[in-house]
Amino acid sequence: MTDRAVAPWTLIVNRTKQMLLGLVLAATLFAPCQALAAAGPNPVTGIYNGLFSVAGGVTEQTAGMLQGLTVRQNGTYSGRLFINGKSHFISGSFNAGNQAANSIARAPSQGGSLQVQMTLSNASNAPPQVTGLVSGTTNGVAWTANLIADFATNSLSAARYTMLIPPCTNNAPPDASPGGDGYALIANNSGRISITGALADGTAFSQTTTVSQDGYVPIFANLYVRKGLLLGWINLDLTNTTSVSLTWIHPKRASGLYRDGFTNILYTNQILLSPWTNPPANIGLLTDLSVLGTVNDTNALIDFAVTMKASYRFDDVSDPTLLSGLIGPGSGRLKVVIGARASKLTGYGAILANATNGGGFYLTKTNAQAILIGP
């Protein structure tokens, strides 16, 4: 991921600023420990969650998640590494230099063994992290990915958020990739993050993870029977968007929409995130709903004038049978029904309270198109 790549053997992390962690890895750094010594002074015990990917970009074979790495006071740890649709248990002990290594056996069809190298950072001027490298081979080609896992905290206030995941204009939406917005509904409960949503081709995803001291949340979901991937970082501190990005990998498939596959990559200014409150404010200002091929189209396929009613329901001003909808007051989820019976189309999305608008998608027999709602 941009701003988080590392040069070989030197770990440099760039978030709000570049922080040199002072970890230059000598060739013998992760040699097998000799009767592992206790971890270094005052290890930050708790749970760490994070991601890894190679500098060249995210692929299913070279990117994944370190999930639930639990570090104990004596320096022992355990957790799971997710990559290429599989889950691998790891455990061990950090040595006196707060470093550890694991070798994960995998079948040749999975690319063979993986090497995991970790350093537990407890710098006084930065939030605790586990950083390191994950390395392996794919089709005989060696690769090395940068790993960052953040210490789980509950320093951010409990809150809810909505997020829109726009289409990638580089992949010819809506014919070669979806034209609408995917969405996510996010809840932070004492540092425990719950995420539910759907991508703009209708693929549902969900995740439970944690948030870091500086607001970062790792996004990870295996898709399409563990052949695809949604991976990246978001930040619930809306003033800090450094290193925010998402990659959505839709593989080639024998059936369904977009059988040729695509990879959508979104960066900081393309991911739309907003706090959500219940009851929501300014919902009455949402009076125009458009159906488009893509969210970037200047001309709508259909425009509806809508009126908000009780319980956050809405319908078309002139003919309620043409369009109806509902905004979930507790979550910000948007549901829209266009037409009736055999011609009925149902769309889903989310409302961005901080922008007083919203977006989503609906599916046709041949592609996925866009819904926009606003003043």
Instruction: Please report the total strand number as a whole number.
Output: 27
Number of helices: 0
Summed over residues and divided by their number, the pLDDT gives a mean of: 89
Going by helix content, strand content and strand pairing, the class is mainly beta
Summarize the main sheet.
8 strands, antiparallel
**What share of residues is helical?**
under 10%
Name the strands of the widest sheet in spatial order.
6-5-4-3-10-9-8-7
Give, in order, the helices and strands. EEEEEEEEEEEEEEEEEEEEEEEEEEE
Q: Give the CATH level 1 class of the largest domain.
A: Mainly Beta
Low-confidence region ranges: 1-37
CATH architecture designation of the largest domain:
Beta Barrel
Q: β content, as a range?
A: over 45%
What would you report as the Rg, rounded to the nearest angstrom? Answer: 22 Å
Q: How many domain regions? A: 3
Q: In CATH terms, what is the fold-level topology of the largest domain? A: Porin
Q: Cα distance, first to last residue?
A: 35 Å
Instruction: Using the alpha-carbon principal axes, give the shape.
Output: globular
